[in-house]
Write a structure and sequence with these properties.
With 189 residues, the chain is mainly α. 68% of the residues lie in helices and 0% in strands. The longest helix is centred in the middle third of the chain and has 21 residues.
C-alpha cells in the first residue's frame, strides 16, 4: 500500500484493522497539528505534550467513525486539543500530576494518559507497543539536536525562541526542521 496516497480516513481505518504502519503515516502527517495545538499550553512540558498529542491521535484513529460526517482532520484536532485542555484543567485545579505518573517520550513506563487507551488489557498492551515502536523509530531517525528542536517546535516555540534557547541561528533551526520532516516522510512511505 502506498501510504502517502491514502487518505487520513482510510489510514485510520487501516490502523483500526491492525496496520501499525498506517498510524506511523498519520503521525507524520499530524506532527504540525500537534505542535499548533500545543502552542497554547506552554505551562506543560514539551515532551509530555508531544506524547499526549500522539496518544490523542491514536485514540482519534481508533475512535473515528465515517458515519458522523466530519473529516478525520477535524476529529483528530478536536481529540488532541481536548486532551491538552484536560491536562491543563488537572494542573490548574491544584490536582497536580506527580512527576512519576507522567511518561516522558523516551520512557517505556505506563503513565495515566496511556491508561485511557482502553479497559481491555490486550488492547492496552498492543497500543503501548505501537507507541513505543513509533517513539523508537522517530528517535533512531533524528540526531540529538533535531530531537531537541522538534520537541521545542511541537511545544509551540517560534523559530526565534528556539534559536535563543539553543543558541542557534534561524537558518540552522529551519534546516533542522526541514531535515526532520524529510526524514519522517522518507521513513514512513
Amino acid at each position: 500500500m502506498d501510504y502517502a496516497k491514502v487518505s487520513d480516513r482510510d489510514l485510520a481505518k487501516a490502523y483500526r484493522e491492525g496496520d501499525a504502519q498506517a498510524f506511523l503515516e498519520l503521525s507524520a502527517r499530524y506532527l504540525k497539528t500537534i505542535r499548533i495545538c500545543a502552542s497554547s499550553f506552554r505551562e506543560i512540558e514539551a515532551d509530555d505534550l508531544y506524547q499526549e498529542g500522539l496518544i490523542a491521535l491514536m485514540t482519534a484513529a481508533r475512535g473515528f467513525r465515517e458515519e458522523t460526517g466530519i473529516s478525520f482532520a477535524t476529529y483528530a484536532e478536536s481529540c488532541i486539543l481536548h486532551r491538552f485542555i484536560s491536562i491543563r484543567r488537572k494542573l490548574t485545579a491544584k490536582k497536580t500530576i506527580p512527576a512519576q505518573n507522567l511518561t516522558p517520550i523516551e520512557s517505556e513506563e505506563d503513565g495515566p494518559a496511556a491508561r485511557d487507551l482502553g479497559s481491555d488489557p490486550e488492547t492496552f498492551v498492543i497500543e503501548q507497543e505501537n507507541l513505543q515502536r513509533l517513539r523508537s523509530k522517530i528517535s533512531s531517525l533524528l540526531s540529538p539536536l533535531e530531537t531537541k528542536i522538534l520537541a521545542l517546535y511541537l511545544s509551540g516555540y517560534k523559530y526565534g525562541e528556539i534559536c535563543e534557547k539553543l543558541s542557534l541561528k534561524k537558518k540552522s533551526v529551519d534546516n533542522a526542521l526541514s531535515r526532520v520532516r524529510r526524514k519522517i516522510r522518507a521513513s514512513f512511505p
